[in-house]
Amino acid sequence: MKYLIYTLKRLISLIPVLLGISFIVFFLIRLIPGDPATTLLGSHATPDSVRELRSQLGLSKPLWSQYVTFLGHLFRGNLGYSFVYNSSVTSLVTTSLPTTLWLLISATVFTILIAVPLAVLAAARRNGVVDNVIRAVPVVGLGLPSFWLGIMLILVFGLKLGWFPVAGFGDTFASHLRSIVLPGITIALTLSPILIRSLRASMIDVLSSDYIVTARAKGLSTSRVVLRHALRNAAVSSITVLGVNIAYLTGSTLVVERVFSLPGIGQQMINSILGRDFPTVQGITMVFAIMVVAVNLLTDVTHAALDPRVNLA
């Protein structure tokens, strides 16, 4: 019961956060240079035609009135209507969102596959050659921009070796899997170093605990002690680190989507910014915000479920 109440409290606390985000998003988007009506009609449009289109799009109303309208639509689950695509923003997001979710899921899986074995190996060989190499090499990857890593992966595994597609998302489930490998690894290479350091530190701390010493004294093998006892307890704190960074990377997927020409909401957002499509940018930004908030909420709830030390009051 306490766990359910804790979850409900966390959900309620997110309402003012989302309201604040909607306010910031709405007014910041208006700072983008350029007028949507002029962009749609072209540079040779007459002032009268621009004025008429602005009136049709609702851009001639005061900003506070436009925001109230936007907020009212948002409460009803309506993200607005695209100026450029002549379609509802909800339908655009529904079409593009699955690709972005594929990317986030693949990035999470590759991050775990890379970070967990390396962190366990480094902790088990503390201060040895292997530990020093594992700690040093990922730091290099942490300093490399994701777009550069993506381009390098395209050149090597896409163009030279021909193992994976270099652009697009494919049409079948198998093509989706092949197309998402390189983008997922690109994000994973930037996220893995953070998780490796966190999990390694937690593993070292757990391995020095009394119950681990007792387990070793009972004659349990090193692999069993490390994998069954130490890793399971050390992973609790690292879940928070992974969740926070996935939430952070949710908004930065647009760079990777651009490099690999993935038809996700990040790519859609860039195109909408270039076209001064205010409703689409607002809607996609709110979707990104909800995704970040949802990942943070899931991280907190999972941490509370796994760690009995968390205060649920």
From TrEMBL:
Is the keyword Transport in the record?
Answer: yes
Coarsely, its chief localization is membrane
Q: How does it sit in the membrane?
A: Multi-pass membrane protein
Q: Which InterPro entries match?
A: BPD_transp_1_N, MetI-like, MetI-like_sf
What residue intervals traverse the membrane? 12-32, 101-124, 136-157, 177-196, 234-260, 280-299
The UniProt record lists the ABC transmembrane type-1 domain at 97-299
Superkingdom classification of source: Bacteria
Q: Which CDD domains match?
A: TM_PBP2
Pfam families (alphabetical): BPD_transp_1, BPD_transp_1_N
Q: Where in the cell is it found?
A: Cell membrane
Q: Where is the signal peptide?
A: none
Keyword annotations for this protein, in alphabetical order, are: Cell membrane, Membrane, Transmembrane, Transmembrane helix, Transport
Which residues are in coiled coils? none
Family membership: Belongs to the binding-protein-dependent transport system permease family.
Q: What is the name listed in the Swiss-Prot or TrEMBL entry for this protein?
A: ABC transporter permease
UniProt source species: Jatrophihabitans lederbergiae
